[in-house]
Structure formats: C-alpha cells, structure tokens
Amino acid sequence: MNNEYIFPVTFLERAAGVYSDRTSVVYRRTSFTWKQTYERCRRLASSLLRLNIAKNDVVSVLAPNVPALYEMHFAVPMAGAVLNTINTRLDCKSIANILKHSEAKVFFVDYDFVPLAADALNLLLDDAGTPPLPLVVVIDDVDTPTGTRLGELEYEQLVAAGNPFHELPRLEDEWDTIALNYTSGTTSAPKGVVYSHRGAYLSTISLLLQWGVGCEPVYLWSLPMFHCNGWTFTWGVAARGGVNVCIRTTSAGEMYRAIADHRVTHMCCAPIVFTILLEGDGRLLAAPVHVLTGGAPPPAPLLEKVERLGFKVTHAYGLTEATGPALVCEWRAEWDRKPAEERARLKARQGISVLTLADVDVKDGKTMASVPRDGRSVGEIVLRGSSIMKGYYKNPDDTVAALRDGWFFTGDVAVVHPDGYLEIKDRSKDVIISGGENISSVEVETVLYKHPMVVEAAVVAMPHPRWGETPCAFVTVKKGGERVKEEDIIAYCRANMSRFMVPKKVEFVEELPKTNTGKIQKFQLREMAKRLKVAERPSPPPKGQLPFHSKYQVEPQQEQVIMSRL
C-alpha cells in the first residue's frame, strides 16, 4: 500500500495490530476480536479475487446490520472493488434497477431478504437490456444458521475458503472509488453517488473528532450501515478500537436490551428512532448514551423528551453526496447553563461545517452572495471539500447540475445565526408560498410537535383557490388521542404562530410515509394533499427457498467450477 496516501482499510490493519484481542463485533451470542475480524476480511477479499472480481467491479449487498455487512466495508475495498450497500426497504423493482445500473458482479443477500432478491433478479431476467446477472451469495445467520439458499454459495463458506495470507491488490490512488451509494429517492429517481477512499477516510476522522469519540467506544448499530456507509462509522469504530454491537431491527426492546447488555456508549439514528425509544417503556438509562442524529431536522420538543431518558444528543446534517454528515452542532459549555427548552432549541440547529470541508456557506442562488449572519436571511446551503462525492455514476448531466463553480448545491434553505451556526428552514422544494409569503414547513412542524397529543407531524403545500397554496398538516397522535379534532390542532396553531402560517387543513394518519432512515416522504404527502379540499371556516378562539426462474439456477457442474476457485 502506498504510504503517501490514505485509505479507510488501514483503520482495520491498525486495529488488528494495536487492539488485537479487544472485541470488535458482537451479534447475539457471536463475537469476534479485531484480530479475527481482520483475518475474516482478508479471507473474504481473497475469495472475491478467486471469483474474478477485479478493480472497480461493483459488489452489492442487501442486508441489515449484521457482522457480514460490517466486514464487507473492509473486505470489498481490500479486493480493489467498490461496495454498493442497498437499502433493505426498497421494492424489487428499485433493487433490480440498482443492480442493472451499477452492473454488480456479485450480489450478497441476507437470508431474510432472499424472496425480495429473487423477485429483483427475476425482473432483470425479463429485461433484454440487462448485463450478465451477478453471482448470488446468501448471508446466512452467523449465530443461528437457517440453511436458506439462493443457489449454493454462502457467506461463511467464502470466508472459510479464503486465504488470509493471499497477496491482495495494492491500493495506489486515494481518489479511487471505495463505495457507490444510491440516494434515497424521496423526490426523484435514485442516483448513484460515488465516494473516494480519500473522502471516506477524511470524513471518518472528522466525525470522530467533532463528536468527541474516545478510545474503546461501544457503538450500537441503530443506524443502517447501508445509509452513507453508516455515516462512515463502519470504518470509524475500527479507528478507535471500539465494539460494534449489531442488531437486526431498531425496535425499542432490542435497542434497550443491547444498551443494557453491552453498556453502549454511542449510537447514531434518524429522529424517528427517538419516537420509537419514547414509545417503548421509556426507561431511564443506567449511564448516558451519546447519540448523533440527522436525516431530518429534529424538533426541539422531541430532543428535550429523549434527553430526559439519558440520551445525550448531538445534531448533524448531511447528504449522501457529502459522504454523510456535513455539519455538526458542536456543543458549547456555556449553553449548559441555559434552560432546558433553550438548550433543545440550540441542539436542533444544524451547526458548523465538518473539518473535511473546505467551506460551507449559505448563498443567494441568483447572485451567489453570502446571506447576512442575522438568523433571518435565507439562502441555499452550498458545500465544497474533499469529502464531497466524485459525482453521480454514469450521470454527467446531474453531476454538472449539482457541482457548479466548485460548490455542491444541496437544495436546502437555511439561515446563518450571528454565532456562525446554520439552521435549516426547509428544503427548497418544501417552502410553501402562500399569497406571496414564504412559509417554512419546518417552523410549522416545530409548533405542531409541541402539542401534547402530537407524536409526528409533517407539513406540505396544498392547492388553495385564493392563495395559490397553503399549509396542509399531516399528524399522528398518541394512543387515546382520538378525541383530538382538526379544529383543535388549527386553534393551537393560531395561538402559537403567525396567522398566515396556520395550516388550513389537518389530516390525521396512522403513520407518515418514510424512507428507511426516517426521512418523511413529502412527495407522497403532497400528492395526498392535492386530493384534499380546504373548508374555509371562521376563526375559532384559541384553545389551551423460493419460486425462481430455472434458467438462473446454477447447474451442479457450474457450482463445482465456482467452488474450485476457492
């Protein structure tokens, strides 16, 4: 490996040397040390090479947060290949599109997702324009094997057959691609975002420093590793010699159990996970757990509630295109003396730039002038630096549109406070323009979250015959909140915000549509809002093994050829 350059896989090499006997990964009754994890990753990398994986080949994986997915973050780049982690909540058509677009050579599939993967592969078989299908490898449960297969190859089989002393490819250029991540597609077709080794390495170091992650953290995988490679903490936990506590689901019971059993010190999540934790038994933690949250602006009232349980929250903001977090709300000691409500409001801001960015600014999109640092003037967040994506895979037009004059344009509307901290006011497409007035949906949502019976809220524009468009609120309420009416919510809003910002329509739903990371899919809500009608009303007074194409099945002699390579 060229010593002049930096690569995330070096974190694992170092961990195997200096943290050799420390626990690296825990999953149910199974655990590994850093020495074992390094050997397993080298074994897997050698097996990938024997399966003719070459530099820049894409290796896709569809799996929850299990040890195999963690190991692939090192083993795949060790083989010189590009890791593509696929969102487990996507439908078969979306998965098929990603496999086709990325031209994946190998497709690892967790046993729970074999039916979904089979459906996706069947769609590819029916598409005449599809390149050769990837070789499928099932990831069976490492703790309690199920025997599930899709073909004959299995993950632990590849690890066992690999040679840990095999000479792996020399990594020579830190700008080479390490990962291919497809955007969540909340507003448009997903795009393949290309990460460099350099960007991933620097982002990892930056977050460890700014979040203050010390030696030997116990990290709970409540954030999907498939989302921006776990905000780079897949590599970061190795850098600090920590413990990766892997869980398959983010249920309240599983998270609280893991926190208690393993003495978790750190975790990341989207704000939706806070709601899950609060809807659990609401137990107080025996020791503080540091939480980095992002993915959607968390309302201050929600932050205040979760911190009462013992979770110490740091707010971050980022995008897939920024290799995860781009801003972190660094905490200032002087804020500890402020009232709880004020502390929560400060925490809800997106903060200041991560160390890997050369610059972050909020600019007027037309003039490219920086907005005043007055906490009121809005503009678009723009970023530049080594951690920004190389571009969109096989998509030069969108790459040029997003990367202009050295800046990446995020599409997020924000203000800059006098202390230099940024605060998002909305996505540019989510700003509601009613009668010429700009309304921040985030501001309206923040008020709604303060209502004692509201669990979740999302505000979008709906058509209005007079004002062009007007706010429409979608809310979920607590159990027992069935008696809360639309009029009650509107009256509450009238008492707590400017009149022009008050939603003209409130729709109660059982659950808001979300991506896997907790981002509310507002494009779905906007479509729903178009079908709703505003009922003008006088202002009330304020109130307090599986079906599969046989032509894909690998013949026995083919399996023998494959296995002879291992």
Short description:
The protein has 566 residues and is an alpha/beta fold.
The radius of gyration over CA amounts to: 24 Å
Average of the residue pLDDT scores: 88
Looking at CATH, the homologous superfamily of the largest domain is ANL, N-terminal domain
Q: Tell me the major beta sheet.
A: 9 strands, mixed
CATH topology of the largest domain: Rossmann fold
Helix content: 25-40%
Please work out how many helical segments DSSP would assign.
18
Q: Outline, from the CA principal axes? A: globular
User: How many beta strands in the DSSP annotation?
Assistant: 26
Structural class: alpha/beta
Described by its quaternary structure, the protein is single chain
Distance between the termini: 24 Å
Read across the widest sheet, the strand sequence of neighbours is 2-1-10-9-11-12-13-14-15
How many distinct domains? Answer: 2
Question: From the 3D coordinates, which CATH architecture of the largest domain would you assign?
Answer: 3-Layer(aba) Sandwich
Domain AMP-binding enzyme C-terminal: 443-519
Protein name: 4-coumarate--CoA ligase
Keywords: Ligase
GO molecular function, one term: trans-cinnamate-CoA ligase activity
